[in-house]
Specification:
Blueprint (H helix, E strand, L loop, with lengths): L5 E4 L5 E5 L4 H10 L6 E5 L5 H13 L2 E6 L2 E5 L10 H4 L9 H8 L1 E4 L13 H9 L3 E5 L2 E5 L7 E3 L5 H12 L4 E5 L5 H12 L3 E3 L5 E5 L8 E3 L4 H13 L3 E5 L7 H9 L3 E4 L3 E5 L4 E2 L3 E3 L10 H8 L2 E9 L8 H7 L3 E5 L2 E6 L7 E3 L3 H13 L3 E5 L2 H6 L3 H7 L3 E4 L1
Parallel strand pairs: 2-14, 3-13, 9-10, 17-19, 18-19, 22-23
Antiparallel strand pairs: 1-23, 1-24, 3-5, 4-5, 6-8, 7-8, 10-12, 11-12, 14-16, 15-16, 19-21, 20-21
Helix pairs in contact: 1-2, 1-7, 4-6, 5-6, 6-7, 8-10, 8-12, 10-12
Bound molecules: uridine-diphosphate-2(N-acetylglucosaminyl) butyric acid.
The site of uridine-diphosphate-2(N-acetylglucosaminyl) butyric acid has 27 residues, from helix 1, helix 5, helix 6 and helix 12.
Length: 418
């Protein structure tokens, strides 16, 4: 953690081209997957962000050798692990730490990790992960501060997930790659990061089909080998930059902004009056007129991502009329509304719904980033505000966005890190 802050002078129109970094969440998912083999694995397009560093700390504590080959390219080798227990003081740093469980359990028959940390955005249970391991034949219990799972070899089975959890699906999918027999995950998460992880696992010798849909079939194999895998672009960063263009009445080319990963956002932006065009290299986002209020709900993929719910609400503070934003994934992801109101936004909450009235001029004041996406939302508000916005606790933003301030500056924003 640092005491760094962003100072943003609002009112500058964004213009130009910007490239989206490698996907934050896919980065931590694929790092965990490299634990499934003793061979070298190469990951490309890895963003230089806090959550990747946290995940690497955990893996190095397990005994993984990590080498930075060139910017964005890592070589990992887990041929000689010294423990199957994730140290709690590191695991509490991020939610994805629990993803070491599936690979370690599958490969070594034993894994332990404490309930992981992550953003304060609601209850984040682990029942889907734990009951899934148990259905695959593991003995799962709580020992001290950790969950411990043991099984000499997992057995393939049919698993129904109560909720299509992203990390839950990935933990079970990775565990099942080395199980005896076939596993079918029903009601699996369909996020592009799940499909991309399956693609990497298949390149390592796994037999997975259906990933990216809601039923995934995994035929267990005896072992997996090394691979080289390029991370998909970060669809949440792309969406955030698209909203930055829209809120500043700008025109921005978002290279590696994959339209096929952003249907819901593109749909909502167009409905509110923003022009979004698919180009050869990504997306062109342009706003030339007033914004209209729209209703939106954050739901599992392919719906509007919960990680873009706060940024979308900020945009709608500038739209004519009343917008209803329903958060249907996490039960406490509207905390940013308090900060936004300090800037003059007319937003009220009712349960997990934000009701945004607009357009309201935003005013630069001092606000606090409460988590990664809430922080991004405040940056967007700062870009549109009159005067100077000061955002503290920006270490949250640094966990998830690579050089966000530099990228925005390259588009004409006046943003400084102090
Ligand atoms: N849930 C359960 N039982 C479980 C697990 C989850 O009921 O065992 C519920 C949660 O309570 C929540 C919902 O499922 O209501 C969604 O949680 P999910 O498990 O899908 O989220 P996650 O896998 O922990 C990942 C991303 C999040 C992203 C969500 C939803 C990573 C590292 N994190 O979290 O990303 O918001 O999926 O798409 O991949 C972020 O990037 O800022 C972030 C929070």
């Amino acid at each position: 953690m640092t005491s760094e802050r962003f100072l943003i002078e609002g009112g500058h129109r964004l213009q130009g081209a910007v490239r989206v970094s490698g996907n934050k969440n896919a980065a931590v998912h694929t790092l965990a997957a490299t634990l499934l083999t003793s061979d070298d694995c190469y990951l490309e397009n890895v963003p230089d962000i806090g959550d990747v560093r946290f995940m690497l700390d955990i893996m190095q504590a397990l005994g993984t050798k990590v080498e930075r080959i060139s910017p964005g390219v890592l070589r990992l080798n887990s041929g000689d692990l010294r423990t199957f227990i994730a140290p709690s003081e590191l695991a509490i740093n991020l939610r994805a730490s629990f993803l070491v469980m599936g690979p370690l359990l599958a490969r070594f028959g034993e894994a332990a990790c404490c309930p992981p940390g992550g953003d304060i955005i609601g209850l984040r249970p682990l029942d889907v992960h734990l009951s899934g391991f148990a259905i695959l034949g593991a003995d799962v219990r709580r020992e001290g501060d950790k969950f411990v799972a043991r099984a000499p070899r997992l057995r393939g089975s049919r698993v129904f997930m109560d909720y299509p959890s992203v990390l839950g699906t990935q933990n079970l999918m990775m565990a099942a790659t080395l199980a005896e027999g076939t596993t079918v995950i029903v009601n699996a998460a369909a996020e592009p990061e799940v499909a991309s992880l399956a693609e990497m696992l298949n390149a390592m010798g796994a037999r997975i089909c259906g990933a990216g849909g809601h039923t995934i079939q995994i035929e267990g194999v005896r072992s997996l080998h090394g691979t080289s895998h390029r991370l998909i672009p970060d669809r949440i960063e792309a969406g955030t930059l698209a909203i930055a263009a829209a809120i500043t009445e700008g025109e921005v080319d978002i290279e590696e902004g994959l339209a096929s990963h952003l249907d819901a956002l593109i749909w909502k932006l167009r409905e509110s009056g923003v022009e979004v065009e698919e180009t050869e290299v990504g997306l062109r986002v342009r706003r030339r007129g007033p914004l209209r209020a729209v209703n939106a709900q954050a739901v599992p993929y392919p719906g509007l991502p919960t990680d873009l719910q706060a940024p979308m609400s900020v945009l709608l503070t500038q739209a004519q009329g009343v917008s209803f934003i329903y958060e249907r994934v996490f039960d406490n992801r509207l905390l940013y509304v308090g900060e936004l109101r300090k800037m003059g936004a007319e937003v009220v909450t009712s349960g997990t719904t934000a009701i945004v009235s607009g357009p309201t001029p935003l005013i630069g004041v001092s606000v606090r980033a409460l988590d990664i996406r809430a922080g991004a939302a405040l940056v967007l508000a700062g870009l549109a505000a009159q005067g100077l916005t000061e955002i503290s606790d920006i270490y949250h933003l640094d966990r998830g966005y690579e050089a966000l301030d530099q990228k925005l500056r390259s588009l004409g924003a006046v943003i400084q890190r102090v």
